[in-house]
Amino acid sequence: MKTGSAEHEHAMVRAAELYYNDGLLQSEVADKLRMSRWKVGRLLEEARASGLVEIKIHHPRSRRRDLERKLVARYDCSEAVVIESQPTNAATMELAAQAAADYLMELRPQPSIIGVSWGHTVAAIADRIPEGGLREPTIVQLNGGANSLRDTVDAGSIIRTIASKSRDPRTALLPSSAVVHDRELARHLLADRQVAGTINLAAKADVAVYSIGVLSPQSVLVKTDCITADELVRLNKSGAIGDILGHFIDRSGRVVDIELDQRTIGLDLDRLAAIPTSIAVSVGAEKSGITKAALYAGLCTVLVTESKIAEQVLGNNLE
After folding, report:
1. Does 80 share its domain with 23?
2. What domain range is 16 assigned to?
3. Where is the Sugar-binding domain (predicted)?
4. pLDDT recorded at residue 1
5. What band does 251 get if pLDDT is binned at 50, 70 and 90?
6. 83: DSSP letter
7. What is the pLDDT of residues 87-134, one digit of tens each?
8. How far apart are CA 243 and CA 232, in angstroms?
9. What is the mean pLDDT of the chain?
10. 11 shares a domain with 45
11. DSSP string for residues in 10-68
């Protein structure tokens, strides 16, 4: 790690946050960041000398601890990670993805089974996992995917990216579309040994990482024809505001349109809620409503989000 490099700067920020904001001892910071106590001391000295640390940490990657504490106090989640909203969604996404990757890498003990969904957000998280950061993980797909994706944001590409950065990884793909065309086909698929085995393995995950989806014509599920235009209209009329792993819910966190939900292939919401650490990532102010619903329903133990969403979720200005 060269002095002045982006990696060195990020290490300095994380050391300062853990030491000054979280109150960890230097030895505990060293353990979390997997470096020597001497190196942590040097990073903290540099942070003070450079002006990075004053009364608060001045850096885009610094977290909004005030909003985090309020979210944890109000909702049934064990932790919140709130980054400062940036001028563009792309810049905010970059910070949120890095924060989610950091959180995953700092878990102790390291998870042995990691469940992941797919899409741009989870792909960005996978890209930011460091080389050799995970040891002997089993990486499993949480929900069915889609074939007509232009970018490498499909489940297979995401799982391969994480596996390529891991030591002795194992993988488990879910060979099915996110939503199939009829309930009879769904019933047969769920009875298939490989599909059922992957879903049962996903239910045993130590950690689940997924993004929160908003109900919109721009949704990846709509763009990939997993959801038709008629179904989108029907979901709107049913009160759906977004989806969690392809399961569409209303503002109370209840599944709407049971017929459609019976055609959805993947881990169901009850089993998602039972996973010890479920990390939901939400970026984009339009996702405030569905984020609040996910928190209300207890569908995540850890929320990674931006300050605009956190402020709206904590306020009373949601439509």
Report:
1. no
2. 6-50
3. 64-314
4. 66
5. very high
6. E
7. 998 999 999 999 999 999 999 999 999 999 998 999 999 999 999 989
8. 12
9. 89
10. yes
11. HHHHHHHIIIIIS---HHHHHHHHTS-HHHHHHHHHHHHHHTSBSSSB-STT-B-HHHH
